[in-house]
């Protein structure tokens, strides 16, 4: 069986070797093993801190946490009771069904609907559906946000907080040159950040980095000696590049030196809000492809 349901998690097994582990907690993908293009050797493609707390009491430090309906500290009047990055990454999702199961790929669907815990901090109707598809060298993650309201617009932010396993001191991210960005290293509050324009042809994270690129190109390449990963996005118009460097020592669930082993490249809609009309559905998509 290529899809295994275990207590609290789902394992996807592709016939050619790749595998994926999704926790129901946050629908967080915590492992993606995919073969190298050259010699088929299976490699872990996502960073997961060895200190990540996996018992459902804290958002997971690594993998692909889902950010919804607010990015960072809540600012929208409807979000003020929410924790940083919202509730999707800390709620228990439901595994619904297998959508595809053949040599082309293995695909599953999970959903999150309002629960009493969510309703206590967020009273808007919504439905989230997450479609995760594993192919030989590719992982697609589609987040569908539906607005079941008959009269009210749903305003939200969303992002996939993807921790790519890669040597932070050696990697570059392209093409972000000339894209406007906001530097969260300068100030965490949006109001105090001034827009800058990226001047570098190749962005790196050799210094602590927390940059929110607005209206970004939707197609990014992360390269390092011996590795290339492509990340494509749809509807996630912005992208965040984050690596705290030594500042990671202050993050309780970050393993020692963990910041050397990843970069977060996070497609999202985080500058402004998606305005989703009643009865409509919005789909944000990320497709990660191993190129080398
Ligand atoms: O996406 C980047 C960011 O918002 C950073 O500012 C940093 O705080 C990071 O996310 C991690 O947030 P977390 O709530 O998971 O500790």
TrEMBL record:
InterPro entries noted in UniProt: Aldose_1/G6P_1-epimerase (IPR008183), G6P_1-epimerase (IPR025532), Gal_mutarotase_sf_dom (IPR011013), GH-type_carb-bd (IPR014718)
Catalytic activities: alpha-D-glucose 6-phosphate = beta-D-glucose 6-phosphate
Enzyme class: isomerase
EC number in record: 5.1.3.15
Entry-linked Pfam families: Aldose_epim
Annotated keywords: Isomerase
Cellular component GO terms held in the UniProt record: cytoplasm
Family of this protein: Belongs to the glucose-6-phosphate 1-epimerase family.
Function of the protein: Catalyzes the interconversion between the alpha and beta anomers from at least three hexose 6-phosphate sugars (Glc6P, Gal6P, and Man6P).
Protein name, UniProt field: Glucose-6-phosphate 1-epimerase
């Amino acid at each position: 069986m290529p899809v295994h349901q275990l207590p609290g998690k789902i394992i996807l097994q592709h016939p050619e070797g790749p595998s994926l582990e999704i926790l129901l907690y946050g629908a967080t993908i915590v492992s993606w093993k995919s073969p190298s293009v050259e010699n088929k050797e299976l490699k872990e493609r996502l960073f997961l801190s060895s200190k990540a707390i996996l018992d459902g009491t804290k958002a997971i430090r690594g993998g692909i946490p889902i950010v919804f309906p607010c990015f960072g500290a809540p600012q929208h009047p409807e979000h003020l009771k929410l924790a940083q990055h919202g509730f999707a990454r800390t709620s228990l999702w439901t595994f619904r069904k297998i959508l595809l199961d053949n040599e082309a790929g293995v695909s599953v669907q999970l959903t999150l609907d309002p629960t009493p815990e969510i309703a206590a901090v967020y009273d808007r109707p919504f439905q989230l559906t997450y479609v995760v598809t594993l192919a030989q060298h590719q992982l697609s993650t589609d987040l569908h946000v539906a607005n079941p309201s008959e009269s009210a617009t749903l305003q939200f932010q969303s992002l996939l907080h993807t921790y790519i396993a890669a040597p932070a001191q050696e990697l570059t991210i392209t093409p972000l040159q000339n894209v406007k960005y906001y530097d969260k290293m300068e100030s965490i509050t949006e109001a105090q950040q001034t827009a800058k324009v990226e001047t570098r042809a190749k962005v790196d994270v050799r210094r602590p980095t927390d940059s929110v690129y607005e209206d970004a190109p939707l197609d990014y390449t992360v390269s390092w000696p011996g590795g290339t990963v492509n990340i494509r996005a749809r509807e996630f118009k912005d992208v965040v590049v984050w690596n705290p460097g030594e500042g990671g020592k202050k993050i309780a669930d970050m393993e020692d030196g963990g910041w050397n082993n990843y970069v977060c490249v996070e497609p999202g809609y985080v500058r402004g809000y998606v305005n989703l009309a009643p009865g409509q559905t919005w789909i944000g998509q990320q497709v990660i492809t191993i190129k080398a």
